[in-house]
Design a protein that fits this description.
Elements (H helix, E strand, L loop, with lengths): L2 H12 L5 H13 L1 H19 L8 H14 L12 H13 L7 H21 L11 E13 L2 E11 L9 H10 L5 H11 L6 H13 L3 H10 L7 H13 L3 H12 L6 H11 L3 H13 L8
Antiparallel strand pairs: 1-2
Length: 307
């Protein structure tokens, strides 16, 4: 069992969702792998922190979620009746039905059918369809903002429309990186996690480094903060990074985040961190984090308490 497969199975192990043979293989790997053991401790600490949290949910939450889902499905636009099929659509459906039984005659008939389809398509698209139908298809989301009657049976409707487009490219591309940096600031935490994960390989860029530091220090989602910490591992010796991590260590409310920050800080010998770790030990209420800090201080030949 590899470290990657163990990392994927640890959450299932913590919640007792693995088969007995999988548990045995994972435990055997943990006994021999210190890195995966640390990951197991991190996952357990995170699960314990989540279990301790209790949120008071408003009674209207379910109705609000249903309304949001319905709006997302409809793209914000009101319901509308399905339009009648155009002559071109009816022609294509009839042609498809006609050709459905021709497969047994082989390729020649199919070739003739394609030629015929091309001919009729040219005739219909050139004369029978509006110009807008010739433009590339795109997903458009519409929201009605106002409706005003104009008299004589007419109405004026103000509509906001947003067209979605798909952009692809390497993470090193300037435009792709700019969009990923913008996604890190979006409201959707899943989008922020994915974007930070993709930006990790570009941490040598000043903009990306600053975005990761900002996520570690200020993002409200612990998953985003953990992804950002992973991206900062190659920069653990950078003075600005260490300064931010020291502040996060004393302020972050998530024990898994604090444990990973300790790992990053001690990956580079720095006696100035002794005071930070001593302060954390005095206020730390999580046993895993406190024991880790005490071990680090002992390894640095420093006292556990402050004097």
């Amino acid at each position: 069992m590899t470290c990657d497969s163990v990392a994927r199975l640890i959450p299932l192990y913590c919640y007792g969702e693995l088969m007995p043979e999988e548990e045995d293989q994972l435990e055997e790997h943990l006994h021999a792998c210190a890195a995966c053991t640390r990951e197991m401790e991190r996952q357990r600490a995170l699960a314990a922190a989540l279990d301790r949290r209790h949120a008071e949910l408003p009674p209207t939450l379910l109705d609000a979620c249903r309304a949001d889902l319905q709006a997302a499905i409809q793209g914000g636009a009101p319901r509308y009746e399905k339009p009648a099929k155009s002559p071109w659509t009816l022609f294509l459906e009839a042609l498809a039905a006609t050709l459905a039984g021709f497969h047994r005659y082989g390729t020649p008939v199919g070739a003739v059918a394609l030629v015929a389809l091309g001919f009729f398509a040219a005739r219909f698209t050139g004369a029978g369809l509006p110009a807008s139908s010739l433009s590339p298809a795109g997903e458009v989301f519409s929201t009605v903002r106002s409706v005003e009657p104009e008299g004589s049976g007419r109405v004026q409707i103000a509509v906001d429309e947003t067209r979605r487009r798909v952009v692809s490219g390497p993470t090193g591309d300037r435009d792709i990186q700019r969009l990923l940096l913008a996604a890190v600031r979006e409201d959707n935490p899943a989008l922020r996690v994915e974007s930070v994960d993709l930006l990790r390989s570009r941490a040598d860029s000043g903009e990306v480094r600053d975005a990761l530091l900002n996520a570690v220090a200020h993002d409200s989602n612990a998953g985003v903060r953990l992804e950002a910490l992973d991206g900062l591992k190659p920069l653990a010796g950078d003075p600005q990074v260490r300064k931010t991590l020291a502040r996060v260590l004393l302020a972050d409310d998530n024990p898994a985040v604090r444990m990973q920050v300790v790992d990053l800080l001690v990956s580079h010998r720095d006696d100035s961190m002794v005071g930070v770790l001593q302060n954390l030990v005095q206020k730390e209420d999580n046993n895993y984090v406190r024991l880790k800090c005490e071990k680090v201080l002992r390894d640095m030949n420093a006292s556990i308490g402050t004097f």
